[in-house]
DNA sequence: TCCGGCTGACAAAACGATTGGGCAGACATG
DNA sequence: CATGTCTGCCCAATCGTTTTGTCAGCCGGA
């Protein structure tokens, strides 16, 4: 392992001082250095393929160009990848790096991890939680720039990005309305998380805008997995008059609904249209027919959070924003107009 | 934002030199400092809640206690979370931090990212690829400690961790044999990746050990998704004599097989036992009945890779090892003895 | 008294960058 | 010739640690 090239080596070989090398390579404004010298320094740096040591620079500048993503268990969820990817690519595009830490939900390890990161001179934090919700930011982070991910704070000074659940629920329902459905069921989640209420509200809004009075008999709540979807599905399909379309809280529940429909001898989409939520490709692509669903903007959230965080680190005056990102509908094959004959 | 406490502050307040504080807090061996002074220093450090600045330490020590996980697209795959989580927790347990970078598969950005990380004094690299395979380590990494993840190298000096596909295939097949099945089909992947061949070999081995001559008519190859599983499933179920059990290359194909079985009016597991691979919980838990499958040791791979890497950083003499990690069978409800009556 | 050895600490030099404040020399001006 | 201004560059301090080498004081032995 050969010794790493330092700025001193470049200076020596170019016959100038370390100062000059630094000024040249950083294009320090207001410093007068002849074009000749500039060229020579640059060439030598190139020849030696000199790369400045970021640790030394961090120490001197008191900033590291490193962001930390700390989360409870987010790395465990199926979508984690997209959040992390969005954050990582956004950081990398701007020359920043990303550190990853997860606390497993334990508040005490969380504090310890955050302190470790602060000792590393991390410049800012992304704080992400598993289910988007109102969140108490750890006291340790009070002095550091923070952006929330898939969560928001009561404190408006803390920027955050989360999915627009209401818009997503409305879009899903609107799609069914646009195809001509009037009796549209909702198989909702049992737990009171923001997604549950948001999607319900979106469903209601779409119906009302279409002049349809929401019918509580068409809304069920169950465990948010395939078994829950199956049970609620059976109940709803046996309900009379049966809905021609059902919007499911998520794709897992939709998967259960497919099973229930098969059991009742109903074909999708001819006899029943289905829309899911989450765009879990494993499920949505795997079902027959493919599941039309609503995608969560995970990648976008990660990217937005990083961009916002960097902006606020570089210019602390930037106003805080709490955004809700659009959830787009992803069409596959589980929606047709009611009473439609199979097309092919 | 109050000024951070430095070692100088501690020294000042304890009435000793910076040197002494350092010795005390690091328990530098061979340094004589009275118990009295030790106690005082520690107490002051505590009072001020002093945390050494790791950047300065990294600069001085020329090591950062930071590992980098660089991957092509691994963060995109559904399992990424587990690998990352395993790596992160193992690192954290030892006081190390993890940086994350992914190249999107582009060799050029990969080089750039690696250089950026080396400028940051990263002490070692985990290099992970999407599908485990023999891999050429980028030249940039030649001088740094590296461990491969979900991949291996032709160079035995580079340690690696990957799933033991053969053992996994064998375990899946053995489970079916143990339940009394003799005609066991295999719906394999179309692509020649290590998983394809490994799982096939495991299947063959288990059959031979049970004294069964493998029948090529019972092995099909298809696209490794639900559609592929569906098509191969139909073909295999129409095959005569029909197998009583089928081992699928992965859970997605098994999902397709469920659909094919339903279409032929066959019940799982009464009429057909099914074993998958990957333990994609979204699918395996979502199907009815739950899918018995083989889990990939993603978490363990991440953890093992970090432990190995750290060991080799701290003691470069540690011999290199290329390990294959066990893939355990996860039983759910898709396997019964052939011809069994439904139990309840 | 002088010397050697031990104890308990400290000063200063790194590590590799950035940056504020000089300081020579060239040239113009009066 | 003295003075002033500008150009082009460099010195040295700094960021917060670790570590090497040194040193004052004390005690015991000759």
UniProtKB/TrEMBL annotation, chains A, B:
<keyword id="KW-0678">Repressor</keyword>
<keyword id="KW-0238">DNA-binding</keyword>
<dbReference type="GO" id="GO:0003700">
    <property type="term" value="F:DNA-binding transcription factor activity"/>
</dbReference>
<keyword id="KW-0805">Transcription regulation</keyword>
<dbReference type="InterPro" id="IPR046335">
    <property type="entry name" value="LacI/GalR-like_sensor"/>
</dbReference>
<protein>
    <submittedName>
        <fullName>LacI family transcriptional regulator</fullName>
    </submittedName>
</protein>
<dbReference type="Pfam" id="PF13377">
    <property type="entry name" value="Peripla_BP_3"/>
</dbReference>
<dbReference type="GO" id="GO:0000976">
    <property type="term" value="F:transcription cis-regulatory region binding"/>
</dbReference>
<dbReference type="Pfam" id="PF00356">
    <property type="entry name" value="LacI"/>
</dbReference>
<dbReference type="InterPro" id="IPR010982">
    <property type="entry name" value="Lambda_DNA-bd_dom_sf"/>
</dbReference>
<dbReference type="InterPro" id="IPR000843">
    <property type="entry name" value="HTH_LacI"/>
</dbReference>
<feature type="domain" description="HTH lacI-type">
    <location>
        <begin position="5"/>
        <end position="61"/>
    </location>
</feature>
<keyword id="KW-0804">Transcription</keyword>
<dbReference type="InterPro" id="IPR028082">
    <property type="entry name" value="Peripla_BP_I"/>
</dbReference>
